[in-house]
Structure formats: C-alpha cells, structure tokens
Amino acid sequence: MKTLEFNYGSKDLQDFISLHHEGRLNLEPGFQRQSVWSLNDRKKLIQSILQNYPVPSVFLYKRPDEHGRLNYDVLDGKQRIESCLMFVGANSFKRERFDLKTKISESEEQKSWDWNKLKKARHEHKITGYKFQTVEISGDMSDIIDLFVRINSTGKRLTSQEKRHAKFYHSDFLKVAGQLGNKYHRFFLENKVLTKGLLSRMKHVELICELIASIHSDQLLNKKTALDKIISGQVINQKALRHCKVRFIRTHNLLKKTFPNLKATRFANSAEFYSLFMLIHQLDKDGLILTDRKRNLQAQKLLEWLSNGVDELRGQISKGKGTRPEQELFSNYLFTTRGDSDSSTTRERRAVVLKNIFSGLFEKKDDKRGFSPDQRRLFWNSEENKRCSSCGEKLTWENFTIDHIKPYALGGRSVLTNAALMCRSCNSVKGKRLRWRKRNRQAGF
C-alpha cells in the first residue's frame, strides 16, 4: 500500500466557486454518497459562516488532469461546499438558492437575508472571503477510498450501502443496481416502502442489491452476510447480471399488477416488501399466471386481510391480551417480523406463510405449450366446417393452424375443448397483437 501525502492549508469560498466554474471541483466522485443535509442544516452552516464561526476542515483528493491542471475530488465537506454554492447560486445551483433569518452582527436585528440582499448591503465578502481549512491528499485510489470511509464515520455516518458504494463504486453489479434505483425510486417513495430520507441514504439501492442477489442465487439471503461478496464482483458474471436485471424488471411489473394498492398494507416497508417481491418472483418462476385481473383483485384483498389481521393481533398483544385460535396464521406471520427480520431463517419462515396464502389463488400454465401432431390430426378430422374461425377463409391441410381460444399466456390449456381452426395469417396477427398487449401491460401502459 502506497503512503498518502497530506498538505494542510486553506481556501476561501471564492476559490471553490472558481474551481467549480472551471469544472475542476468534483463534488460527486464515484465513491461519494448522495446529499443528506436538510435545508435547515444548510441554513445553520451559512449562519455560522456569516458570524465567522469555525467549521470542520474540507478534505480534498488532489489529482492532475491531462493538461497538468490540478483537480479536486471532495472526500469530506461535500455538504458544506454544496450549501455555500447553493446560497450564492453558483452555476448549476442557481435554482437551489435559499434565504435565512440571522444577525450579521450583534448590533443589528435579526432579519431575512439572501445572496442578493447581502450583495446590496455589501456583506458578500463574509461569504466569498470565508476561509475553509483544507487537507489536500494525494496517493493511491484504494487508500483514498479507505480514508473516505474512515473520515465519514462521524457526523451523519455512512450507511452500510454508502460504504459499499464507496468501496465498490466500480462494480458492474452496483452500477446495475444504481440504474434500477434511479428508475424505481419514485415507486419506493409513492408506495411508502422507503422514506425520502432513506432514499437519500441509498437504501433503495441496497434493497435492489438484495433482490438481484437473491434472484441470482435463487434463494433467500441473509442481508448482513451476502451483499459485500456479491457487490465486489466475485460471484456474478456479466451474462448472469443481465439476466437478473431482466428478471427484476419483470417481477417488479408483475408485483405492481398483483398488488396495485401496496401502500395501504403493512408491506410498505423494506423487510416485508423484500419477501413479497421474492414471492412474486417464485410464483412466476413456478409458472403461475399473475396477469389475470380478477385474481389480482382477490390477491390485493388477501394481502389487506393478512395485513389487517397481523396489525390487529399486534395491538392485542401490546395490551396484554392472548391470541385467539382463529388468529394462528396471523401469529405465525407476526413471529417472522420480530427480532432479526432480515436473516435467511426468518425470511424463509415468512416465505412459507405467504406462499401458503397466495399460491392456491393463481392458475398454472399448461406444461405443454402447443398442440401435438395427434391432436392436430384428430381435431382436423372432427371438424365439419373447415374454415378460419376469424376471417372465414376456407382451409386445407397445408394451411390450417390450431389456435387456443383462451390464450396460453392467460392460462389456456392445449386441449381440444380450447381449440379453434385458424389460418396462418390470422393466427400470426393474433399472436403479434397479444404480444403487443402483453408488452404494454408490463410497461404499465
């Protein structure tokens, strides 16, 4: 491991503004976390600066570009520098300006200040001239990342996922999870699976990592032990990762159809959402049809029944009341939500309860996709009116096909009572139309 070099000094805010304007200040290097400060946090910082109070040092990773100019990645101090750039409306931060109520000096009354008012009052130097103590670091990238994790273990500490993001930001697995996180973050927020605060701490990416890893391993995982190994890229190759991404998107779309009002249930939390997601993945893998609207309405009602029953039982127990015999199923489920709810053992127990409730609700696709030669011959010879059931064209042995009256994709079986004669042209058009409808349904149209 190479030795890191540290240079201690200072930069005023105008230096940071100039670096940002020139594109030489990187607030979001690959290993950096997302912004986690609230607006109130940012106002308190500006208030401290206006009153010339000291703030913690800014740590910068110093590296030259191809032209020999120095560039700086912010290791620690992102929120501080970002807040100042927002207040003055520098470059891309113009739309994020804010004001605050404070005193500029002890002799003045407290009033509202924004950047324009400060400039009119000729107080802008209190911001642009404020000096931040800096620590400029150079050295090997792996050592820089270890340092980033260490110095961000105080204050708003890095979550487990933020640490993984810092260590393995180059991982293809993590990049795919991040893409899916950007795509579905609104779903998690609108369905109350995660709060806005948790999303800002990358909890949605962590949840997606768990789900992709579980899809890949085809089993329920222990959250605490499984992720680092998989995210580091030691287990899953590119081809398998692409397959897992496709399976994730498919399962997500099926879950939305099966449980359209998820936010009205207790499954609007990450631990139980994980179990529900993996239930849908397993049912789909087992060949059950999860696109029937009537059955999905029943599934939503069953989910609400389970959710309400478990909540009612939990209320009883908190009041010191016992469990009634008819509440045994709710009791079994409630047991899986206590203690370490993310262990593989607990998740497996929860999966058994859920599968027992929902698997009997859905039809299973016929194992046989098409009609056999014997069925074709028998059906052709038994039909007197050998015309296409769609367009009426007269059929011959050479140009006829057998169509499923109830489509195979919707549970139609390959039996003669579900068969109709059809010309190849109509059957092809029908197939394309069904595939088009299926794609649109999966896309949410």
Protein model, in words:
51% of the residues lie in helices and 11% in strands. The chain is an alpha/beta fold. It folds into 3 domains: 153 residues, no CATH class; 195 residues, no CATH class; 71 residues, DNA Binding (I), subunit A, CATH 1.10.30. The strands form 3 sheets. A 5-stranded mixed β-sheet has the order 1-7-3-4-2. It has a two-stranded antiparallel ribbon with strand order 5-6. Helix 12 packs across helix 13, helix 13 crosses helix 16 and helix 14 crosses helix 15. The longest helix is centred in the last third of the chain and has 26 residues.
- N-to-C terminal Cα separation, in Å? 54 Å
How many helices? The count is: 18
Question: Low-confidence runs (pLDDT<50, min 5 residues)?
Answer: 164-169, 435-445
**Largest sheet descriptor:** 5 strands, mixed
Overall form = elongated
Sheet with the most strands: spatial strand order: 1-7-3-4-2
Structural class: alpha/beta
| Structural domain tally | 3
Number of E strands: 9
Strand content: 5-15%
Helix content: 40-55%
Mean of pLDDT: 82
Helix-strand string: EHEHEEHEEHHEHHHHHHHHHHHHEEH
Radius of gyration: 30 Å
Question: Could you give a quick summary of the protein structure above?
Answer:
This protein has 445 residues and is of the alpha/beta class.
List key phrases describing it.
alpha/beta; five-stranded mixed β-sheet; elongated; 3 domains; 445 residues; 18 helices; two-stranded antiparallel sheet; DNA Binding (I), subunit A; disordered C terminus
SSE layout:
Blueprint: E1 5-12, H1 13-21, E2 25-26, H2 39-50, E3 58-64, E4 70-76, H3 78-88, E5 100-102, E6 111-113, H4 115-120, H5 125-128, E7 131-138, H6 141-151, H7 160-167, H8 172-190, H9 196-200, H10 203-217, H11 223-231, H12 238-258, H13 270-285, H14 293-318, H15 328-335, H16 344-358, H17 373-382, E8 400-404, E9 419-423, H18 424-443
Parallel strand pairs: 2-4, 3-7
Antiparallel strand pairs: 1-7, 3-4, 5-6, 8-9
Helix pairs in contact: 2-3, 8-10, 8-12, 10-12, 10-13, 12-13, 13-16, 14-15
